Structure formats: structure tokens, C-alpha cells
Amino acid sequence: MTLPSRALGRTGPTVSAQGLGCMGMSFAYGAPDRDEAVATLERAIDLGVTFFDTADMYGFGHNEELVGKTLAPHRDQVVLATKFGIHLDENAPGGRGVRGDADYVRQACDASLARLGLDHIDLYYQHRPDVTVPIEETVGAMAELVEAGKVRHLGLSEASADTLRRASAVHPIAALQTEWSLFSRDIEAEIVPACRELGIGLVPYSPLGRGLLTGTVASLDELSDDDFRRGVPRFQGDNLDRNLTAVAVVREIAGDRGATAGQVALAWLTAQGDDVVPIPGTKRRSYLEENVGALDVELTADDVARLGALTVVGDRTATPNWTNLDTPPTA
Length: 331
What we know:
Layout: E1 5-7, E2 14-16, E3 20-21, H1 34-47, E4 51-53, H2 62-71, E5 79-84, E6 86-88, E7 96-98, H3 102-116, E8 121-126, H4 135-147, E9 151-157, H5 161-170, E10 175-179, H6 191-198, E11 201-205, H7 237-257, H8 261-270, H9 285-292, H10 301-308
Parallel strand pairs: 3-4, 4-5, 5-8, 8-9, 9-10, 10-11
Antiparallel strand pairs: 1-2, 6-7
Helix pairs in contact: 1-2, 1-9, 3-4, 4-5, 5-6, 7-8
């Protein structure tokens, strides 16, 4: 089976019009199930998905090992993206810190290559800009990885428009990975235009609002005790109740189109431009198949406008100063 394809920016690879986010296979959304994760990755290949996303901090190495081993027989068919930069730091908010210094970039890449079992990474993202290190230093070190043949294309995640421009002056940036969905619209004012100005592809993560847009979460009681969404503001109390009112609109349109709410949310995002490649995450085959089915959903102009008018309450992350980040100027 094949899926429609899209190019990631002016300089990036061509990938399936929808990718697969693999984070939940190792942590954050309840207990992992390795057998089902492997089956989900293999089913994605069968469905025509060619774009897979992981990171060194997903399960602190476990996810890279899982994805690398499972996709090894299909290496020539896939574009594999991973990320570096977030690390354990007991003194940082949420116990996580960010590093973007040149030495760390090189160390992180070698470690990811070893876990993935690869001789090169197709798309290598900085997971978060380091607000203490000029982006020129970080991307300069990443560019050296390209020159060494260890990396093919470079990306950033949760970078501000200014950071994107400065990074692009050092080396072409193929893609920006950032949260974007019907319920996360903050990048549309400055960051999306900057990406299009610079020829950078857009890779939205959490395009289903961390599950909220699927219409399957009506209460925190439905989430396991170790599900990180329990700490996300938009899932809290009155915020959740108000957001579910907006979800009802998505479900209504889904009923009119013979689709699910999640498929409508993904179809809206895909309709935002040919440079947009969402990476909905899942650890189950059933949800994967549903998500891929969104590529067949056709929304009317009225649907797109009505969906675009929805509003959400509550921050998208529980960690302050963790999104759309700037870096300091060079000395």
C-alpha cells in the first residue's frame, strides 16, 4: 500500500503525508507493550507510512532501540527522525534540562546512532533550543555531522521564528517539529510564516491534542495514574469541561463526513498546506489505522472554517518556558 507523499521543505526528504510518532510506545501514556509496539510499527510499513519519529529521551534510549531494531529490515523504505537535547537534570523544572553545546551535539548523535543501529540519521532535530547557547553553535555542530555523513538533514523543535532564521543562516533546516492542532494554534502568527519564508517543512506533533480531539477522553479518571496528561492544564477541571464542548463540534462534523473526530482533526491539519506532515503518535494498531484513514477524509471549506474558529482553554504544557524558544546572541 502507498500513501500520498510530501516534501519536507525545500531541502528535506520526501515522506508519506502522515508520519508516526513513536514516543508513547516507550513512556508517557501508560505502561508500554513491546509486542503491540512492534506490531504497530510493522503495520505502519504495510499501510505505506515511511516517516517515523523518535528521540533519545523517549524511554531514555528504549524507544530508539525499539524503533531501530524493528525498522531495520525496511531501512531503505523509511525516513527515520530522532532528536537530541533533553536530558535528566534534577535541578531543572520537571527534572529535565536542555543542552545544545557543540560537544553534547556530537556525543548525543553517536549515542543515538548506536542505539538505532544505523550508520546515518535521516533527519536529526534539536529537541528544544538551549536558551543558554547561541543557535549558531548548535546548528554549526549539527552541520558538521552532515559533513561527516552521520546525518542527512537537520531539524529543530519548538524554536521561535528568530531562532529559525538564525539557524537557517548557518545550514538549511529541513523541518520544524512543533505542537500544532485545532487546539494548539500559537505557531500560526509568526512561526508558520517564518517556516514558509525559509522553506522549512512543518511537522506537527500531538496533532490530536494529546488525545483530547479524538473524543475519547471525558475525564481524568479515564487516564492511568502514570499518564502525564494528568498534569497538563487543559485536561484539568473546568478547562476540560469547556474543551469538551469544542470537541463536540469536531464530532458533529465527523458524523457528517462519515469519519471519526480524530480523523477530522487530522484532515483539518493536513489541509493547512502541502508543507505540513503530521505525526500522530500511537502505540496501538487500531488507532494507527484510524489515523492513516484521515488522509481519505475530505472537508468542505465551511468545515475548515468552522473548525478553525474553535478555541481551547488551558496551557498545552505543564512545563513553563518550554515552547517556541529563543536562544542568546552570539558573543
